[in-house]
UniProtKB/TrEMBL annotation:
The protein's name in its UniProt record: Reverse transcriptase domain-containing protein
UniProt domain Reverse transcriptase: residue ranges: 29-285
Lineage: Eukaryota, Viridiplantae, Streptophyta, Embryophyta, Tracheophyta
Organism whose genome encodes this protein: Lolium multiflorum (Italian ryegrass)
SUPFAM superfamilies documented for this protein: DNA/RNA polymerases (SSF56672)
Amino acid sequence: MMGPDGFGPSFYATFWNTISADVFEIFASFFDESIDLTRINRAFLVLLPKVDAATHPSQFRPISLQNCIMKGITKVLTSRLQATIQLLVDADQTGFLSGRRISENIVYAADLLRCCHTRKAPTIVFKIDFRKAFDSVNWGSLLAILKARGFDDRWCRWMERILRSGLTSVLLNGVPWDWIPCKNGLRQGDPLSPYLFILMADVLQRMIRHAWGLGDLFHPLVNNVSCHVLQYADDTLILCRASPGAAANLRVVLEDFASATGRDLGDISTSPSFLERIVRDGLPLYRAITRVTVGDGRHTSFWLDRWLPGRPLAERFPAIFSHCTRPHASVATVVTLGLDLQPRLSLAAEAELLHIRCLIDDTRLADAPDTRVIDSPSAPSFFSREAYRMLSPPRPRDASACIAWGLRLPSKLKIFIYLLDIDRLSTRANLFYKSCAPFDVCAACPEIETGRHLFFDCRLASDLWAQLDVPIPAGPFSVWDLRSPLPLPDKAWQFAAATILWAIWKSRNDLVFNGKSTTPSSTLRKACDDLLLWRWRLPIAERAHLDLLRSYILTRAV
């Protein structure tokens, strides 16, 4: 789109032969700092709604429409900065940098957290998302950082002139308003802004590393490694060893970072997670599926837990429970201190009180912790998987899944064969249906590449099965319906059939991605190589059957 001067990219492309000398003169004037940038460093501020029917300023995203000549200058500066910024910014910063992927940080964070969970290592996971990150950049702090990082005086003067000469007009309903001089922040849409921002954000990386050097912050698992600060532009994830001192030191570092970069800690948008509320909301369901064997009674609710046969006491004696002033009292508290009831009980409550006192008199506490178990005959103690099973709706048993997951094959093959059997494999037909592929035609023939066609009906696949003397059933069928060419146990044939299908899939991928065509015989030989590699996964007694099948396949792969 065009900036305030009305000259868009198409104008420069069309009339380049006419205006090129003037453009070169502007660039030369910028280089020797003789140009008045206030005449060209102007932009329209356009508000793009983030949601439908936006009504609040926070629901809009501001975008700057700069003059193309100014954007060309900053683009040249960006190209120069890109050549060296990889050396200036920490490897854990993945925003806007070519060759770095945010997925690497995601995988690392997930692996580290899983490892910390397995080792029961206390860990602080601190997520920071700076509100209005680009808009709150302090120019004085940015210029000081550039000088500290070794940028020469000419570059710093260029940056200062670009920042301080900017004028912006808000474009409302296509009508520009008065020009506003810029005093703070970086323009969204300027090619130079992201790189200046990540240079500023890199200060936090260095401050964290400095705190580790002073012995304040540590990696969750290793002492001689600094805690990691994973960044994607302004999104920051800090993982460090948990302790009260670490939390206090982390706060000091963040306050120092705010002071060093001109930010205010109020700019950090926080979303607290009230774990107590989450746990409290889940307690009724938790108590409904569990039963408690009372030991010392300290962690069992007298009224709400099921620690006696039948329903909880609050449900069995609702009248007296309605007069209770401490509904969450533990069994130990009630047995030791007695009931705490409101005065003037109703007649129904008086009658129920006699039963409750008899229960209290008969209760004997032990010097052992309470034990909570799932209220299910198959669960001797509380397991998350058993709770999940009880809360999940009943589902019909999937015979195909049972066979696939029961094979002693690598996990990738189990997933592959299961997806094939339920027609969820990434064939061209499925990808085309999801608008992820431009066409659905098989790479080896003009037919539609469905799962059935690829693995059974295509020329390569049909010739392969014919060589093995394995008939293909008519109509819809499961891969487990294929008949073994030899009288062997089902598991041996299922193991071999899955491996053959995997070899067909790899041959197809070789053709699609590498342009290499194969023959049925070469595909069968590759399947035999995999069978030889994976036969050690089987019990010794079952390997003989697989070896017999492998020998048969080799004799047919001619």
